[in-house]
Amino acid sequence: MAVPSKLLQKLARRLFQQAPEQAQFIEALVRPQPLPSAILWSRPRPPQLPWSLLPPLPWQPAWVDRLEPGSQPGQHPLHDAGHVYCLDVSSVFAASVIAAITEPRPTVLDLCAAPGGKSLYAWLALQPQRLFCNEVIRKRGRILIANLKRCGAKEALVFNLDPEYFAQQLPQTMDLVLVDAPCSGQSLLAKGSKALGCFHPVTVNKNANRQKRILANAAQTVAPGGYLAYMTCTYSPEENEQVCDWLQQRFPQFQPVPVPHLQPYQSSLSEQPCYRLWPQSGLGAGAFTALFRNTAAAAPFPLAPQFIDHHGRGLR
Ligand code: SAM
């Protein structure tokens, strides 16, 4: 895509007040530059590394490295041996809201988990007693299982369920629910990939509504005092800040949590704590992220635990 579409230009004007910023944003999408990549170390780092590393960023955990563009860690034997998981630096940015959680988080549910980057991040960051990883698309679920196995996340349990089942069958049980939501995928352009129709209002609204549905189910699954992390890899405010506004109106007990290390990335499109990495930063393709806490008091009579079969039916 060499010429910016009218819809991209319109979005740039809504995202940035100043013309130079609008131009930089558009440039990052119409003429994408090679971006650094990141690796999560799921096993101890060897003393000698086969890649040259970029300097660590403030929100980069000790078990993450950033690599020069073109490093291709996915083709190295360390990858096949399960030592590393490769992901976009933007994914590390988005998942880093987890660092604002200081209490132990024994039960974590990743509702939109495949191919597994955020699940593995949460596993390494929080070392939960129980890690539930859900993926609605069965074929993607197989990739998720392969990645979790390869990287040694043996504690993880993988589900192939609609998020509604968790809300209905396991209400108010999870200490942390991750919603790395399906989105219009506008940041694919910054990676040099195609994302047809990604700026079209129909695409954006369809994704925003899907995100609200997932978040409504996620919110009902979070335990009192627990956390909900919402993130996307797209730029439209309808899918990001406006979804956060909707969540707070619909579930006022969910309060946004400031994430101190992401303060320099505070979204200028919201008064609430929520954070954006822009593609023109050169760090990654771009992401949006926000952390919420369920401030509701504990339910007086928590439901008895139930198990769910692969059709989503409750088993007593
Ligand atoms: N968290 C993953 C990672 O870090 O590797 C990436 C998740 S990707 C952005 C979004 C995922 O949501 C996709 O795997 C997609 O199949 C799944 N998804 C699509 N529709 C969904 C729905 N209605 N409910 C839950 N998940 C959905």
Question: How is this structure best described in words?
Answer:
This protein is of the alpha/beta class. The termini are far apart. The chain has a domain at 104-303 and 309-314: Vaccinia Virus protein VP39 (Rossmann fold, 3-Layer(aba) Sandwich), CATH 3.40.50.150. The protein is globular, with a radius of gyration of 19 Å. It is 30% helix and 20% strand. It has helices at 6-15, 19-30, 77-80, 89-95, 117-126, 138-150, 163-169, 201-221, 241-250; strands at 37-41, 64-67, 84-88, 107-110, 130-134, 156-159, 174-180, 222-232, 254-256, 275-277, 287-294, 307-308, 314-315. Mean pLDDT is 94; it is low at 301-310 and 312-316. The chain binds S-adenosylmethionine (SAM). S-adenosylmethionine (SAM) binds at residues 91, 111-118, 135-137, 140, 163, 180, 182, 210, 214. S-adenosylmethionine binds at residues 91, 111-118, 135-137, 140, 163, 180, 182, 210, 214. S-adenosyl-L-methionine binds at residues 112-118, 135, 162, 180. Residues 1-295 form the SAM-dependent MTase RsmB/NOP-type domain.
